[in-house]
Amino acid sequence: MSEIKVNKLTPRTACGTTTLGDSGDTFNIPAGVTISNNGTATGFGATGAVNWDVSSIKTVDFTATSGVGYFVDTATTGAVIVTLPAAPAVGDVIGVADYANNFANANCTLNRNSLKIGGAASNAIMSTSGVAVTLVYVDVTKGWIVTDSGASSDAPGPLYVTASGGTPTTCGDYKIHTFTAPGTFTVSCQGNPSGSNTVEYLVVAGGGSGAAKGPGDAGGGGGAGGFRFASPSLAPLTFPGKPLNGCAALPVAATGYAVVVGGGGTGESNPGGPCATNGGGANGVDSSFSTITSTGGGRGSYNNPREAGTGFPGGSGGGGMSGTGPGPVQAGGTGNDPPTSPAQGTPGGPYQYASPNRQGGGGGGAICSGGTGATSPAKAGGDGAGLPTGFGANGESCGSYRYYAGGGAGGSGSVAAANGGKGGGGDGADPGGNGSCNTGGGGGGAAVHPGSSGGGNGGSGIVVIRYKYQ
Question: Which of 154, 187, 298, 449 is buried most, with the most CB atoms less than 10 Å from its CB?
Fold first, then answer.
């Protein structure tokens, strides 16, 4: 093999062009060689361009070499880490592309190797299937900067949240995941600010049970489960049941989020006499997603033996209980307990003695307190909040509204009954009506004259997650 050592090749006079080899010839440029024109590189792996290596598809972790573009296959052996050069020169360039269109399922991590990527001292995660990026090393301040097919979030243009779990539906550009039972919301792509990288939510806890009724008294209605909601993309003040809107949607990462859907409190059966050990039944169970927890509704009050009592606290409070004779006002249970901002519920209605027919207070709802128990007619539960089908149809016709977290009606010492609050609250009835499933409605108190009857069960909760997906 012949070797020529020169410092400069110059065309002959008036030639203007020097040709290297003939068509079909191959020139081998060793790794690390820089081709430049007074500092301005052009071609042959120059600044801003790479030579793509099609001979070796990468399926395991490796360290990149400047000037080379790599096709990375995460479908074969799983996630791959690409370590960037430890001591790059200014203008060095690296390329990485998703060979198997699988980065959303198994990520490719760009290990910064103690330098920065886009000015950030953190590794970059390529989590969008089909993405390809080119990075140029600029300086110690910004480090490697993406110059082609994306930004420092390693994606071309806007990225949108991609996720699975629950029952998914779509409405326009939004995807909605509805959980009526516990599950996992799994995020495979966390998106970026130019597309979407947050999720809106509805988290409703299980409702409290309504109280049973002995002869001559009446228990309170069950409080609705805590109602927490945030949707910057919608306009809650225009809804018919105007919910309190959280201040912001939740950011998400590419991971799994446990979703807990709380059950309703179980009502006590017919006490069969004037003294029941626990005619009030039980509070509802909390629901949760990410950092959001909604508290189960408070059960309606029932005392043994037939003395007026205060309702139980919860997301919304249970109604107060009447006694068999005159006595002080008995408050409903406190709502928004423990406190959240905005409030997750309201207080239950109090009981105030009035002859001849005694009524327990209604359970609190998401946006209205329970009614005050006094004389007939019996007192309704507080109304819940209404959301449009754009936040999940949940069985309602398109263009209508679905209500959540209505309080259960108070129990009655008369034949007359009362309606549960809008949003799944159980009616005052014989026995007390159950709160509707997956609404967080409170159970209704027992309403019968002159005997005894059991209290209604609280309705189970629900979790709905909504985000822009295109």
Answer: 298
The per-residue pLDDT for range 1-44, each reduced to its tens digit, is 667 776 666 666 655 566 666 766 666 666 555 555 444 444 44
Here the tokens at position 36 are: 């430049």
Using alpha carbons, list the distances in angstroms from residue 343 to 71, 214, 229, 263, 371.
52, 34, 10, 21, 19
Q: Tokens 């010492």 identify what position? A: 413
Domain ranges of the chain: 51-148, 158-470
Predicted model pTM: 0.67
Question: Buried (b) or exposed (e) across 139-148, using 16+ Cβ within 10 A?
Answer: eeebbbbbbe
Asked if residue 438 lies in contact with residue 458, where contact means CB atoms within 8 angstroms, the answer is: no
